[in-house]
Design brief:
Layout (H helix, E strand, L loop, with lengths): L2 E8 L3 H12 L4 E5 L12 H6 L1 H20 L14 H25 L3 E4 L1 E5 L3 E5 L5 E11 L3 E3 L12 E2 L1 H4 L8 E5 L3 H12 L3 E5 L11 H13 L3 E3 L3 E8 L2 E8 L2 E7 L1 E4 L3 E3 L32 E3 L10 H15 L13 E3 L4 E6 L2 H7 L3 E7 L4 H5 L6 E7 L5 E8 L2 H13 L4 H5 L10 H9 L14
Parallel strand pairs: 1-2, 1-6, 2-3, 6-17, 8-15, 9-10, 9-15, 10-11
Antiparallel strand pairs: 4-5, 5-6, 7-16, 12-13, 13-14, 18-19, 19-22, 20-21, 21-22
Bound molecules: flavin-adenine dinucleotide and adenosine monophosphate.
Flavin-adenine dinucleotide binds next to α1, β2, α2, α3 and β4.
Protein backbone atom coordinates (compact mmCIF):
# COMPACT_ATOMS: atom_id res chain seq x y z
CA UNK A 1 0.00 0.00 0.00
CA UNK A 2 1.63 3.28 -1.04
CA UNK A 3 -0.71 6.11 -0.05
CA UNK A 4 -4.15 6.80 1.32
CA UNK A 5 -6.42 9.54 0.04
CA UNK A 6 -9.84 10.87 0.90
CA UNK A 7 -10.84 10.58 -2.77
CA UNK A 8 -9.34 8.80 -5.78
CA UNK A 9 -10.77 9.73 -9.17
CA UNK A 10 -10.08 7.37 -12.09
CA UNK A 11 -10.03 9.42 -15.30
CA UNK A 12 -9.17 13.09 -15.86
CA UNK A 13 -11.84 14.03 -18.43
CA UNK A 14 -14.35 16.83 -17.79
CA UNK A 15 -16.21 14.60 -15.33
CA UNK A 16 -13.14 13.42 -13.42
CA UNK A 17 -11.02 16.57 -13.22
CA UNK A 18 -13.97 18.77 -12.24
CA UNK A 19 -14.93 16.30 -9.50
CA UNK A 20 -11.33 16.22 -8.26
CA UNK A 21 -11.07 20.03 -8.13
CA UNK A 22 -14.36 20.42 -6.27
CA UNK A 23 -13.36 17.67 -3.78
CA UNK A 24 -10.07 19.51 -3.14
CA UNK A 25 -11.91 22.82 -2.71
CA UNK A 26 -13.99 21.06 -0.06
CA UNK A 27 -10.84 20.13 1.84
CA UNK A 28 -10.30 16.57 0.61
CA UNK A 29 -6.94 14.98 -0.19
CA UNK A 30 -7.37 13.86 -3.79
CA UNK A 31 -5.55 11.79 -6.42
CA UNK A 32 -6.48 11.51 -10.10
CA UNK A 33 -5.41 8.37 -11.98
CA UNK A 34 -4.95 8.85 -15.73
CA UNK A 35 -3.71 6.26 -18.21
CA UNK A 36 -3.36 8.50 -21.27
CA UNK A 37 0.23 9.52 -22.12
CA UNK A 38 1.77 11.58 -24.93
CA UNK A 39 4.58 10.37 -27.17
CA UNK A 40 7.10 11.52 -24.55
CA UNK A 41 5.31 9.45 -21.89
CA UNK A 42 3.88 12.46 -20.03
CA UNK A 43 0.28 12.18 -18.73
CA UNK A 44 -2.36 13.65 -21.01
CA UNK A 45 -5.09 15.30 -18.94
CA UNK A 46 -8.57 16.44 -19.96
CA UNK A 47 -9.88 13.20 -21.49
CA UNK A 48 -11.81 12.93 -24.73
CA UNK A 49 -13.33 16.41 -24.44
CA UNK A 50 -10.10 18.39 -24.41
CA UNK A 51 -7.94 16.11 -26.55
CA UNK A 52 -10.10 14.45 -29.21
CA UNK A 53 -13.63 15.73 -28.64
CA UNK A 54 -15.36 19.01 -27.89
CA UNK A 55 -12.38 21.33 -28.12
CA UNK A 56 -10.46 20.13 -31.21
CA UNK A 57 -13.73 19.68 -33.11
CA UNK A 58 -14.79 23.24 -32.27
CA UNK A 59 -11.36 24.59 -33.28
CA UNK A 60 -11.76 22.95 -36.71
CA UNK A 61 -15.39 24.05 -36.96
CA UNK A 62 -14.35 27.65 -36.33
CA UNK A 63 -11.43 27.51 -38.79
CA UNK A 64 -13.56 25.96 -41.52
CA UNK A 65 -16.39 28.44 -40.85
CA UNK A 66 -13.98 31.36 -41.27
CA UNK A 67 -12.67 29.81 -44.49
CA UNK A 68 -16.18 29.51 -45.90
CA UNK A 69 -17.03 33.04 -44.83
CA UNK A 70 -13.92 34.34 -46.59
CA UNK A 71 -14.68 32.28 -49.67
CA UNK A 72 -18.39 32.91 -50.06
CA UNK A 73 -19.55 35.79 -47.89
CA UNK A 74 -16.80 38.40 -47.42
CA UNK A 75 -17.51 39.76 -50.91
CA UNK A 76 -21.06 40.65 -49.72
CA UNK A 77 -19.40 43.13 -47.36
CA UNK A 78 -17.23 44.53 -50.14
CA UNK A 79 -14.15 42.64 -48.98
CA UNK A 80 -12.17 41.14 -51.87
CA UNK A 81 -9.72 38.36 -51.03
CA UNK A 82 -9.31 36.61 -54.34
CA UNK A 83 -9.53 32.86 -54.01
CA UNK A 84 -8.76 31.95 -50.36
CA UNK A 85 -6.72 28.79 -49.77
CA UNK A 86 -6.77 26.56 -46.73
CA UNK A 87 -3.48 25.42 -45.22
CA UNK A 88 -4.55 22.26 -43.41
CA UNK A 89 -1.25 21.91 -41.52
CA UNK A 90 -1.58 25.44 -40.06
CA UNK A 91 -5.21 24.81 -39.15
CA UNK A 92 -4.16 21.62 -37.31
CA UNK A 93 -1.29 23.37 -35.53
CA UNK A 94 -3.71 26.03 -34.29
CA UNK A 95 -6.08 23.32 -33.03
CA UNK A 96 -3.21 21.50 -31.27
CA UNK A 97 -2.06 24.74 -29.66
CA UNK A 98 -5.55 25.33 -28.23
CA UNK A 99 -5.72 21.75 -26.94
CA UNK A 100 -2.26 22.15 -25.37
CA UNK A 101 -3.25 25.40 -23.71
CA UNK A 102 -6.34 23.84 -22.15
CA UNK A 103 -4.78 20.53 -21.07
CA UNK A 104 -1.88 22.51 -19.59
CA UNK A 105 -4.51 24.60 -17.79
CA UNK A 106 -6.03 21.46 -16.26
CA UNK A 107 -2.57 20.32 -15.09
CA UNK A 108 -2.07 23.76 -13.51
CA UNK A 109 -5.46 23.65 -11.78
CA UNK A 110 -4.81 20.17 -10.37
CA UNK A 111 -1.43 21.33 -9.07
CA UNK A 112 -2.89 24.51 -7.59
CA UNK A 113 -5.47 22.39 -5.75
CA UNK A 114 -2.71 20.04 -4.53
CA UNK A 115 -4.21 17.07 -6.34
CA UNK A 116 -1.78 14.23 -7.07
CA UNK A 117 -1.76 12.91 -10.64
CA UNK A 118 -1.00 9.20 -10.64
CA UNK A 119 0.02 8.02 -14.06
CA UNK A 120 -1.21 4.61 -15.16
CA UNK A 121 -4.19 2.37 -15.67
CA UNK A 122 -6.45 2.21 -12.64
CA UNK A 123 -8.54 -0.75 -11.55
CA UNK A 124 -10.97 -0.74 -8.67
CA UNK A 125 -10.50 -3.65 -6.25
CA UNK A 126 -12.72 -4.64 -3.33
CA UNK A 127 -12.88 -2.39 -0.26
CA UNK A 128 -12.14 0.88 -2.05
CA UNK A 129 -8.65 0.02 -3.15
CA UNK A 130 -7.30 1.04 -6.54
CA UNK A 131 -4.56 -0.85 -8.30
CA UNK A 132 -2.58 1.28 -10.74
CA UNK A 133 -0.41 -0.19 -13.43
CA UNK A 134 2.21 2.38 -14.42
CA UNK A 135 3.42 2.67 -18.03
CA UNK A 136 6.62 0.76 -17.07
CA UNK A 137 4.45 -2.18 -15.93
CA UNK A 138 4.99 -1.64 -12.20
CA UNK A 139 1.92 -1.86 -9.98
CA UNK A 140 0.91 0.04 -6.87
CA UNK A 141 -2.23 -0.06 -4.75
CA UNK A 142 -3.84 3.05 -3.29
CA UNK A 143 -6.84 3.34 -1.03
CA UNK A 144 -9.40 6.01 -0.31
CA UNK A 145 -12.64 6.58 1.56
CA UNK A 146 -14.31 7.40 -1.75
CA UNK A 147 -13.52 6.30 -5.28
CA UNK A 148 -14.98 8.05 -8.31
CA UNK A 149 -15.00 6.18 -11.63
CA UNK A 150 -14.82 8.64 -14.53
CA UNK A 151 -13.27 6.55 -17.30
CA UNK A 152 -15.42 8.00 -20.09
CA UNK A 153 -16.25 6.39 -23.41
CA UNK A 154 -14.82 5.18 -26.71
CA UNK A 155 -16.12 5.34 -30.30
CA UNK A 156 -18.32 2.37 -31.25
CA UNK A 157 -16.76 0.11 -33.91
CA UNK A 158 -18.95 -1.60 -36.45
CA UNK A 159 -17.70 -4.72 -38.24
CA UNK A 160 -19.06 -3.44 -41.58
CA UNK A 161 -16.54 -0.58 -41.52
CA UNK A 162 -13.40 -1.53 -39.57
CA UNK A 163 -11.40 1.56 -38.61
CA UNK A 164 -7.77 1.66 -39.84
CA UNK A 165 -7.35 5.39 -39.06
CA UNK A 166 -6.05 5.92 -42.61
CA UNK A 167 -8.92 5.37 -45.02
CA UNK A 168 -11.64 4.46 -42.54
CA UNK A 169 -11.40 6.63 -39.45
CA UNK A 170 -13.32 7.29 -36.25
CA UNK A 171 -13.88 10.78 -34.82
CA UNK A 172 -10.30 10.88 -33.53
CA UNK A 173 -8.88 10.13 -37.00
CA UNK A 174 -11.18 12.71 -38.60
CA UNK A 175 -9.59 15.43 -36.44
CA UNK A 176 -6.13 14.84 -37.93
CA UNK A 177 -6.63 14.53 -41.70
CA UNK A 178 -3.57 15.94 -43.47
CA UNK A 179 -5.53 17.10 -46.52
CA UNK A 180 -9.11 17.79 -47.55
CA UNK A 181 -10.56 14.57 -49.03
CA UNK A 182 -12.24 15.04 -52.38
CA UNK A 183 -15.09 12.71 -51.50
CA UNK A 184 -15.89 11.98 -47.87
CA UNK A 185 -18.35 9.41 -46.58
CA UNK A 186 -19.73 9.63 -43.05
CA UNK A 187 -21.60 6.77 -41.39
CA UNK A 188 -24.09 8.21 -38.91
CA UNK A 189 -25.78 11.62 -39.25
CA UNK A 190 -25.73 12.23 -35.50
CA UNK A 191 -24.05 15.08 -33.65
CA UNK A 192 -20.44 14.05 -34.32
CA UNK A 193 -21.07 13.03 -37.95
CA UNK A 194 -22.74 16.36 -38.72
CA UNK A 195 -19.99 18.40 -37.05
CA UNK A 196 -17.08 16.57 -38.67
CA UNK A 197 -18.88 16.32 -42.02
CA UNK A 198 -19.41 20.09 -41.87
CA UNK A 199 -15.73 20.79 -41.17
CA UNK A 200 -14.49 18.93 -44.24
CA UNK A 201 -17.47 19.94 -46.39
CA UNK A 202 -16.77 23.63 -45.80
CA UNK A 203 -13.16 23.09 -46.80
CA UNK A 204 -14.24 21.64 -50.14
CA UNK A 205 -14.97 17.92 -49.68
CA UNK A 206 -18.07 16.45 -51.27
CA UNK A 207 -19.74 14.94 -48.19
CA UNK A 208 -22.27 12.09 -48.13
CA UNK A 209 -23.78 11.11 -44.77
CA UNK A 210 -25.33 7.64 -44.56
CA UNK A 211 -27.84 7.35 -41.73
CA UNK A 212 -29.63 4.09 -40.91
CA UNK A 213 -32.63 5.76 -39.29
CA UNK A 214 -35.48 7.17 -41.36
CA UNK A 215 -35.79 10.33 -39.30
CA UNK A 216 -33.21 13.09 -38.94
CA UNK A 217 -31.99 13.94 -35.41
CA UNK A 218 -34.98 12.20 -33.78
CA UNK A 219 -34.12 13.36 -30.25
CA UNK A 220 -34.32 17.03 -31.26
CA UNK A 221 -37.61 18.90 -31.66
CA UNK A 222 -38.96 17.67 -35.02
CA UNK A 223 -39.71 21.15 -36.41
CA UNK A 224 -36.21 22.37 -35.58
CA UNK A 225 -34.60 19.18 -36.97
CA UNK A 226 -36.56 19.60 -40.20
CA UNK A 227 -35.40 23.19 -40.57
CA UNK A 228 -31.81 22.09 -39.85
CA UNK A 229 -32.01 19.34 -42.45
CA UNK A 230 -33.19 21.89 -45.04
CA UNK A 231 -30.31 24.22 -44.23
CA UNK A 232 -27.69 21.44 -44.35
CA UNK A 233 -29.01 20.40 -47.75
CA UNK A 234 -28.65 24.00 -48.93
CA UNK A 235 -25.05 23.90 -47.70
CA UNK A 236 -24.37 20.85 -49.88
CA UNK A 237 -24.33 18.10 -47.23
CA UNK A 238 -25.84 15.03 -48.90
CA UNK A 239 -27.73 13.38 -46.01
CA UNK A 240 -29.23 10.01 -46.98
CA UNK A 241 -31.71 8.71 -44.43
CA UNK A 242 -32.77 5.07 -44.17
CA UNK A 243 -29.32 4.15 -45.50
CA UNK A 244 -27.88 1.19 -43.57
CA UNK A 245 -24.23 0.48 -44.26
CA UNK A 246 -23.73 -3.24 -44.86
CA UNK A 247 -20.08 -3.49 -45.83
CA UNK A 248 -16.96 -1.65 -46.93
CA UNK A 249 -13.65 -2.42 -48.57
CA UNK A 250 -10.50 -0.42 -49.26
CA UNK A 251 -9.52 -0.86 -52.92
CA UNK A 252 -6.52 1.04 -54.37
CA UNK A 253 -6.68 3.61 -51.61
CA UNK A 254 -10.40 4.29 -52.01
CA UNK A 255 -13.17 3.13 -49.68
CA UNK A 256 -16.01 1.25 -51.37
CA UNK A 257 -19.08 1.39 -49.15
CA UNK A 258 -22.15 -0.76 -49.60
CA UNK A 259 -25.43 0.32 -48.10
CA UNK A 260 -29.07 -0.67 -48.26
CA UNK A 261 -32.20 1.45 -48.49
CA UNK A 262 -35.15 -0.88 -48.04
CA UNK A 263 -34.65 -3.71 -50.54
CA UNK A 264 -32.25 -1.76 -52.74
CA UNK A 265 -28.47 -1.99 -52.41
CA UNK A 266 -26.02 0.73 -53.40
CA UNK A 267 -22.27 1.31 -53.55
CA UNK A 268 -20.44 4.60 -53.10
CA UNK A 269 -16.71 5.23 -53.47
CA UNK A 270 -15.02 7.67 -51.10
CA UNK A 271 -11.50 8.92 -50.50
CA UNK A 272 -12.09 8.65 -46.78
CA UNK A 273 -14.82 7.34 -44.54
CA UNK A 274 -15.67 8.56 -41.03
CA UNK A 275 -17.44 6.09 -38.76
CA UNK A 276 -19.48 8.13 -36.26
CA UNK A 277 -22.15 5.75 -35.03
CA UNK A 278 -22.04 6.62 -31.35
CA UNK A 279 -19.90 5.92 -28.30
CA UNK A 280 -19.82 3.22 -25.62
CA UNK A 281 -18.81 3.37 -21.96
CA UNK A 282 -15.17 2.49 -21.29
CA UNK A 283 -15.61 -0.14 -18.61
CA UNK A 284 -13.20 -2.89 -19.70
CA UNK A 285 -11.03 -4.08 -16.78
CA UNK A 286 -11.96 -1.02 -14.77
CA UNK A 287 -13.22 -2.90 -11.75
CA UNK A 288 -12.67 -6.32 -10.20
CA UNK A 289 -15.61 -8.72 -9.97
CA UNK A 290 -15.62 -8.51 -6.17
CA UNK A 291 -15.55 -4.68 -6.19
CA UNK A 292 -19.34 -4.56 -5.83
CA UNK A 293 -19.81 -2.36 -8.91
CA UNK A 294 -22.50 -3.56 -11.35
CA UNK A 295 -23.47 -2.72 -14.92
CA UNK A 296 -26.81 -1.67 -16.38
CA UNK A 297 -28.51 -3.21 -19.42
CA UNK A 298 -26.87 -0.68 -21.79
CA UNK A 299 -23.31 -1.53 -20.80
CA UNK A 300 -22.87 1.48 -18.52
CA UNK A 301 -21.83 1.38 -14.87
CA UNK A 302 -25.03 1.18 -12.85
CA UNK A 303 -25.65 4.25 -10.68
CA UNK A 304 -28.63 5.73 -8.89
CA UNK A 305 -29.86 9.28 -9.46
CA UNK A 306 -27.01 10.76 -7.41
CA UNK A 307 -24.28 8.70 -9.18
CA UNK A 308 -23.68 6.20 -6.38
CA UNK A 309 -22.79 2.68 -7.60
CA UNK A 310 -23.89 -0.43 -5.72
CA UNK A 311 -20.51 -0.54 -3.96
CA UNK A 312 -20.48 1.69 -0.84
CA UNK A 313 -18.21 4.73 -1.27
CA UNK A 314 -17.83 4.12 -5.02
CA UNK A 315 -19.33 6.65 -7.42
CA UNK A 316 -19.42 6.80 -11.22
CA UNK A 317 -19.92 9.85 -13.43
CA UNK A 318 -19.78 11.14 -17.00
CA UNK A 319 -19.97 9.14 -20.21
CA UNK A 320 -19.68 5.80 -18.43
CA UNK A 321 -23.08 6.16 -16.75
CA UNK A 322 -26.66 6.55 -18.03
CA UNK A 323 -27.81 9.78 -19.64
CA UNK A 324 -26.48 11.83 -22.54
CA UNK A 325 -22.76 11.57 -23.31
CA UNK A 326 -22.00 15.26 -22.90
CA UNK A 327 -19.10 17.02 -21.22
CA UNK A 328 -21.31 19.44 -19.26
CA UNK A 329 -23.47 16.59 -17.93
CA UNK A 330 -20.35 14.76 -16.67
CA UNK A 331 -18.86 17.87 -15.09
CA UNK A 332 -22.03 18.64 -13.14
CA UNK A 333 -22.20 15.02 -12.00
CA UNK A 334 -18.61 15.49 -10.81
CA UNK A 335 -19.65 18.50 -8.72
CA UNK A 336 -22.72 16.67 -7.42
CA UNK A 337 -20.60 13.71 -6.26
CA UNK A 338 -17.95 15.94 -4.66
CA UNK A 339 -20.62 17.78 -2.68
CA UNK A 340 -22.12 14.50 -1.49
CA UNK A 341 -18.71 13.21 -0.43
CA UNK A 342 -18.45 16.37 1.68
CA UNK A 343 -21.86 15.61 3.17
CA UNK A 344 -23.87 18.19 1.22
CA UNK A 345 -27.18 17.72 -0.57
CA UNK A 346 -26.65 18.80 -4.19
CA UNK A 347 -29.06 17.22 -6.69
CA UNK A 348 -28.64 17.64 -10.44
CA UNK A 349 -31.61 18.55 -12.63
CA UNK A 350 -31.36 15.92 -15.36
CA UNK A 351 -34.47 17.38 -17.03
CA UNK A 352 -32.60 20.51 -18.07
CA UNK A 353 -29.41 19.36 -19.78
CA UNK A 354 -28.93 21.26 -23.04
CA UNK A 355 -28.16 19.38 -26.29
CA UNK A 356 -26.13 21.27 -28.85
CA UNK A 357 -24.86 20.60 -32.36
CA UNK A 358 -22.14 23.06 -33.33
CA UNK A 359 -22.86 23.16 -37.04
CA UNK A 360 -23.59 26.49 -38.69
CA UNK A 361 -26.16 27.43 -37.81
CA UNK A 362 -26.08 25.70 -34.47
CA UNK A 363 -28.92 23.48 -33.30
CA UNK A 364 -29.74 23.49 -29.60
CA UNK A 365 -32.54 22.36 -27.36
CA UNK A 366 -33.48 21.97 -23.72
CA UNK A 367 -36.52 20.58 -21.94
CA UNK A 368 -39.37 18.85 -23.71
CA UNK A 369 -39.84 18.64 -27.47
CA UNK A 370 -43.22 19.09 -29.10
CA UNK A 371 -43.35 15.38 -30.02
CA UNK A 372 -42.57 14.33 -26.43
CA UNK A 373 -45.32 16.53 -25.02
CA UNK A 374 -47.81 15.19 -27.56
CA UNK A 375 -46.90 11.62 -26.57
CA UNK A 376 -47.35 12.53 -22.89
CA UNK A 377 -50.74 14.13 -23.60
CA UNK A 378 -49.67 17.50 -22.16
CA UNK A 379 -51.56 20.54 -23.46
CA UNK A 380 -49.09 23.18 -24.59
CA UNK A 381 -48.73 26.34 -26.66
CA UNK A 382 -45.89 27.19 -29.03
CA UNK A 383 -44.21 30.39 -30.14
CA UNK A 384 -41.68 30.47 -32.96
CA UNK A 385 -39.73 33.38 -34.37
CA UNK A 386 -37.49 33.45 -37.48
CA UNK A 387 -34.03 35.04 -37.42
CA UNK A 388 -34.87 36.58 -40.80
CA UNK A 389 -36.88 39.17 -38.81
CA UNK A 390 -34.06 39.95 -36.37
CA UNK A 391 -32.10 43.07 -37.35
CA UNK A 392 -28.85 41.94 -35.76
CA UNK A 393 -28.98 38.58 -37.57
CA UNK A 394 -29.51 40.35 -40.90
CA UNK A 395 -26.70 42.81 -40.16
CA UNK A 396 -24.41 39.84 -39.52
CA UNK A 397 -25.56 38.05 -42.68
CA UNK A 398 -26.54 35.15 -40.44
CA UNK A 399 -30.31 34.97 -40.47
CA UNK A 400 -31.16 31.34 -41.24
CA UNK A 401 -33.28 29.41 -38.77
CA UNK A 402 -35.73 30.03 -35.96
CA UNK A 403 -36.23 29.82 -32.24
CA UNK A 404 -39.12 28.01 -30.62
CA UNK A 405 -40.53 28.20 -27.13
CA UNK A 406 -43.05 25.75 -25.70
CA UNK A 407 -45.15 26.65 -22.64
CA UNK A 408 -47.82 24.80 -20.68
CA UNK A 409 -51.25 25.79 -21.98
CA UNK A 410 -52.75 26.01 -18.51
CA UNK A 411 -49.96 27.33 -16.29
CA UNK A 412 -47.88 29.18 -18.94
CA UNK A 413 -44.72 27.58 -17.45
CA UNK A 414 -41.87 27.14 -19.94
CA UNK A 415 -41.52 23.48 -20.93
CA UNK A 416 -39.01 23.52 -23.78
CA UNK A 417 -36.75 25.80 -25.82
CA UNK A 418 -35.38 24.78 -29.20
CA UNK A 419 -33.41 26.65 -31.79
CA UNK A 420 -31.65 26.33 -35.10
CA UNK A 421 -29.87 29.55 -35.85
CA UNK A 422 -26.95 31.83 -35.03
CA UNK A 423 -25.71 31.36 -31.44
CA UNK A 424 -28.52 28.86 -30.82
CA UNK A 425 -26.62 27.32 -27.90
CA UNK A 426 -26.31 30.63 -26.05
CA UNK A 427 -29.91 31.66 -26.75
CA UNK A 428 -31.27 28.35 -25.49
CA UNK A 429 -29.07 28.70 -22.40
CA UNK A 430 -30.91 31.95 -21.54
CA UNK A 431 -34.17 30.03 -21.58
CA UNK A 432 -32.65 27.19 -19.58
CA UNK A 433 -31.88 29.67 -16.80
CA UNK A 434 -35.46 30.89 -16.91
CA UNK A 435 -36.74 27.31 -16.84
CA UNK A 436 -34.59 26.50 -13.78
CA UNK A 437 -36.37 29.36 -12.03
CA UNK A 438 -39.76 28.01 -13.10
CA UNK A 439 -40.46 31.01 -15.34
CA UNK A 440 -43.55 31.42 -17.47
CA UNK A 441 -43.66 32.68 -21.06
CA UNK A 442 -45.14 35.88 -19.63
CA UNK A 443 -42.07 36.39 -17.45
CA UNK A 444 -39.93 36.49 -20.60
CA UNK A 445 -42.50 38.63 -22.42
CA UNK A 446 -42.26 41.29 -19.70
CA UNK A 447 -38.43 41.51 -19.70
CA UNK A 448 -36.45 44.16 -21.56
CA UNK A 449 -34.07 42.78 -24.21
CA UNK A 450 -31.23 44.90 -25.62
CA UNK A 451 -31.55 46.10 -29.18
CA UNK A 452 -30.24 45.09 -31.64
CA UNK A 453 -29.31 41.63 -30.34
CA UNK A 454 -29.92 38.02 -31.31
CA UNK A 455 -31.56 37.69 -27.90
CA UNK A 456 -34.50 39.68 -29.22
CA UNK A 457 -35.49 36.40 -30.91
CA UNK A 458 -35.96 34.90 -27.43
CA UNK A 459 -38.25 37.79 -26.50
CA UNK A 460 -40.24 37.62 -29.72
CA UNK A 461 -40.67 33.82 -29.51
CA UNK A 462 -41.97 34.18 -25.95
CA UNK A 463 -44.40 36.86 -27.17
CA UNK A 464 -45.41 34.59 -30.06
CA UNK A 465 -46.46 31.91 -27.55
CA UNK A 466 -49.51 34.14 -26.94
CA UNK A 467 -49.79 35.65 -30.41
CA UNK A 468 -48.15 38.91 -29.30
CA UNK A 469 -44.92 38.98 -31.34
CA UNK A 470 -44.35 42.49 -32.67
CA UNK A 471 -42.08 41.95 -35.66
CA UNK A 472 -44.07 39.31 -37.50
CA UNK A 473 -47.65 38.56 -38.43
CA UNK A 474 -48.97 36.36 -35.62
CA UNK A 475 -51.15 33.39 -36.46
CA UNK A 476 -53.08 33.72 -33.24
CA UNK A 477 -54.04 37.16 -31.85
CA UNK A 478 -54.20 38.36 -28.26
P1 LIG B 1 -13.60 11.27 -21.04
O1 LIG B 1 -13.50 12.67 -21.49
O2 LIG B 1 -13.66 10.20 -22.07
O3 LIG B 1 -12.36 11.02 -20.07
C1 LIG B 1 -12.11 9.78 -19.50
C2 LIG B 1 -10.66 9.71 -19.11
O4 LIG B 1 -10.45 8.53 -18.33
C3 LIG B 1 -9.71 9.60 -20.30
O5 LIG B 1 -8.69 10.56 -20.18
C4 LIG B 1 -9.17 8.16 -20.20
O6 LIG B 1 -7.82 8.05 -20.68
C5 LIG B 1 -9.23 7.92 -18.71
N1 LIG B 1 -9.31 6.50 -18.33
C6 LIG B 1 -10.17 5.56 -18.82
N2 LIG B 1 -9.97 4.37 -18.21
C7 LIG B 1 -8.98 4.57 -17.31
C8 LIG B 1 -8.33 3.73 -16.36
N3 LIG B 1 -8.68 2.46 -16.19
N4 LIG B 1 -7.34 4.26 -15.61
C9 LIG B 1 -6.98 5.56 -15.76
N5 LIG B 1 -7.55 6.40 -16.62
C10 LIG B 1 -8.55 5.92 -17.38
N6 LIG B 1 -19.60 16.91 -25.54
C11 LIG B 1 -20.12 18.14 -25.31
O7 LIG B 1 -20.71 18.36 -24.27
N7 LIG B 1 -19.99 19.14 -26.25
C12 LIG B 1 -19.34 18.94 -27.41
O8 LIG B 1 -19.23 19.86 -28.22
C13 LIG B 1 -18.80 17.67 -27.68
N8 LIG B 1 -18.14 17.43 -28.83
C14 LIG B 1 -17.57 16.21 -29.03
C15 LIG B 1 -16.88 15.99 -30.21
C16 LIG B 1 -16.29 14.77 -30.47
C17 LIG B 1 -15.54 14.55 -31.76
C18 LIG B 1 -16.38 13.74 -29.48
C19 LIG B 1 -15.71 12.41 -29.71
C20 LIG B 1 -17.06 13.95 -28.30
C21 LIG B 1 -17.67 15.18 -28.07
N9 LIG B 1 -18.38 15.43 -26.89
C22 LIG B 1 -18.95 16.66 -26.69
C23 LIG B 1 -18.54 14.41 -25.85
C24 LIG B 1 -17.54 14.67 -24.70
O9 LIG B 1 -16.23 14.66 -25.22
C25 LIG B 1 -17.70 13.62 -23.65
O10 LIG B 1 -19.05 13.62 -23.21
C26 LIG B 1 -16.81 13.89 -22.43
O11 LIG B 1 -15.46 13.94 -22.80
C27 LIG B 1 -17.01 12.82 -21.37
O12 LIG B 1 -16.27 13.14 -20.27
P2 LIG B 1 -15.77 12.02 -19.25
O13 LIG B 1 -14.93 12.74 -18.23
O14 LIG B 1 -16.91 11.21 -18.79
O15 LIG B 1 -14.86 11.03 -20.10
P1 LIG C 1 -24.80 9.71 -32.48
O1 LIG C 1 -25.05 8.65 -31.45
O2 LIG C 1 -25.54 11.00 -32.28
O3 LIG C 1 -23.32 9.95 -32.71
O4 LIG C 1 -25.37 9.10 -33.86
C1 LIG C 1 -24.89 7.91 -34.45
C2 LIG C 1 -25.79 7.58 -35.62
O5 LIG C 1 -25.24 6.50 -36.39
C3 LIG C 1 -27.19 7.13 -35.22
O6 LIG C 1 -28.11 8.04 -35.77
C4 LIG C 1 -27.33 5.73 -35.85
O7 LIG C 1 -28.63 5.50 -36.37
C5 LIG C 1 -26.30 5.75 -36.97
N1 LIG C 1 -25.85 4.40 -37.40
C6 LIG C 1 -25.46 3.38 -36.60
N2 LIG C 1 -25.07 2.28 -37.34
C7 LIG C 1 -25.24 2.62 -38.66
C8 LIG C 1 -25.03 1.94 -39.94
N3 LIG C 1 -24.56 0.67 -40.02
N4 LIG C 1 -25.30 2.62 -41.07
C9 LIG C 1 -25.76 3.90 -41.02
N5 LIG C 1 -25.98 4.57 -39.87
C10 LIG C 1 -25.72 3.97 -38.69
Amino acid sequence: MTAAYDVIVIGSGPAGYVCAIRCAQLGKKVAVVEQWADDKGKPVLGGTCLNVGCIPSKALLDSSHKFLEAKEHFSDHGIGLGDPQINVATMMQRKDQIVGQLTGGVAGLLKHNQIDVVQGRGKLLANRKVEVQAPDGSEAVYEAENIVLAAGSLPIDIPVAPVDQVHIVDSTGALVFDAVPERLGVIGAGVIGLELGSVWGRLGAEVVLLEAMDSFLPSMDAQIAKEGQKLFKKQGLDIRLGARVTGSEVVDGKVHVNYATGDETHTEIFDRLIVSVGRRAQTGELFAEDSGVTMDERGCVFVNDVCSTEAPGVWAIGDMVRGPMLAHKGSEEGVMVAEQIAGHHHPLNYDLIPSIIYTHPEIAGVGKTEQELKAEGVKFKVGTFPFAAIGRALAAGDSDGMIKIIADENTDQLLGAHCVGPSAADLVQQLLIAMEFGSSAEDIQMMVFGHPTLSEAVHEAALAVDGKAIHMANRKKR
